[in-house]
Write a structure and sequence with these properties.
This protein is globular. The longest helix is centred in the C-terminal third of the chain and has 24 residues, at about 160-185. About 60% of the residues lie in helices and about 0% in strands. The chain is mainly α. It comes from Actinomadura fibrosa.
Amino acid sequence: MGVRLAGLLPGELDEPQAEVYRAITGGPRAAGPQAFPLTDEEGRLRGPFNAMLLSPPVGQALQAVGSAVRYASVLTDRARELAILAVAAHWGSAFEREAHEAVGRACGLTETEMAALRSGTEPDLPDPAEAATLRTARTLTAAGRLTDEEYAEAVRVLGERALFELTTLVGYYGLLALQLRVFAGEEPPAPATETNEERQGT
């Protein structure tokens, strides 16, 4: 992955950019043990956070949405990370996957569960809320909507607030994945190739 947007050192930031920087590095993301570093060795923001400095008003609002869906949601930590990793797999975002697999391990996701998330297969999730969260997140990324039946089931298991927060989360991490493609040069996953048997209809 070739980085297109050069990172800014903390000393190069103007005051509006510095406010965004402080909100990211000094807010809830920085509290307690960090599963992945927010900055490089010289203090430049990593991943999608770097591009947020281009427009401090938009960047400040965007990082606040991200902070809310991660730290002020009724979704459990495991359910949240299941959903984020489903979005990362859909978009083929290496940064999101690596960062949130690290967070997922800290939240108790197993390597088997994360392997299933990477491959798009079904992990064994005995918790109904976790299973509904993952199912709904995958439906939203694939179809961009819920049928009436899917909506009713998600509300029955999760509740309306959690479903609202989940749809916001799916949109937020999809947006970050898009920005990583544009500003960090992340490549989308290669399309699956047909086997000889599939091409021959066997």
